[in-house]
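anyone seen this seq b4? input:
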Amino acid sequence: RLKIIMLSAAGKRVPEISEEVHLHPINVRKWIHRFNRYGLDGLRSGKSPGRPPVFTEEQRNRIVAIASTNPRLLGLHYSRWSLQRLRRYLIEHKIVENISVETIRQILQAQESFAVHRRKRIAE
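predicted toks r here
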């Protein structure tokens, strides 16, 4: 991987590097891009640095806190949250600008004390 970076720094083009290191050009470009973005850490094996979280820890904590609160205590007319209702509440109260129900589910499931249940539907 370091050889790819050294060859690139020496001015060699991706097809030339690809032949020399016996890797597909897509992989050569991947390592060059990772080095450009993350430096030497980007060349390491294991878990890649990944995308930074979209929501702050504070936002995640507020989502969990609201989901743990009975909706009636917040002035709503129902006693249980659905992911869709929780999403609507979070957006309307400007906790988040936008969020998918899947992201809410993932945030809640990351909490050990939280269980997200899917509603069972009876086929007609």
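The chain has two domains: 2-43, 57-109. The mean pLDDT is 90. kinda curious what u guys think
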